[in-house]
Model the fold of this input.
Amino acid sequence: MFYFEETRLTMTEKFKKPPLRLQVTTLWDYPSQHYGDAEQGDQNYKGATPSYIIWNLLQRYSKRKHLVVDPMCGSGTTLDVARDIERRALGYDIEPSRPDIFRADARNLPLEDEKADFVFIDPPYSTHIQYSDNPRCIGKLDAGTPAYCEAMEKVIAEIFRILRPDRYAALYVSDSFVKGTAFYPIGFELFSILRKYFTPADIISVVRHNRTLKMGNYRKAAEEENFFLRGFNYLFIMYKPPKAKKEKSRMEK
Ligand SMILES: C[S@@+](CC[C@H](N)C(=O)[O-])C[C@H]1O[C@@H](n2cnc3c(N)ncnc32)[C@H](O)[C@@H]1O
Done:
């Protein structure tokens, strides 16, 4: 089930960089963090999600007045995009960056079961970014240790609990490569956890255009030391089937 909404021309014209329109393939390419003249979230927040991604997801998988939840809200990009297009929005973070984000651990959200119509999450990818000094920050857990996936499984179970049946959730993540140490296929690890709870709806590859990729010294190191810089993120779109269907199919077996 997809929910398409018309994007009025006047609105499209307003947004310059790049045009704000529905993506139709599984390869998304977003050169800029924000759409339009306003900012969604904070581009100075390290690890902020490009707002185009959230806009595209909400257009397809949510309706007006639906409740959109982000359990790791960071600079609040999800809240700003959701409100822009008349969704209700709830954001949590272990270390909130603004007053409309509630302090909570994504492994234990203060929200009743099956309240959210759509959940978006962009978790820490191992220890690359220091988000805060909070010891409960999952960004302090090295993806090379079982602790990272154990923590993320609790987050994913919580997303499943708060999501209404017959609704979608999306998780945006990159693999992790630490030069001279190891490659951690975080995307595959998290996808296999997601599959324990949800039905896969689709997998999108989002091309990253970060400044690091363009810096000559990184390029040189990648060539000379024989490794690859991260060029894309996974966007896993997952579906929570309706309960009735699940029970019916079990009875039919
Ligand atoms: C990649 S950032 C999210 C970026 C956000 N989507 C944005 O556009 O600004 C990951 C966030 O997860 C938060 N976080 C880490 N561990 C958490 C936990 N246990 N519970 C809730 N939030 C957590 C961090 O504080 C950080 O803000």
Notes: The longest helix spans residues 146-162. Residues 212 and 218 are 7 Å apart (CA to CA).
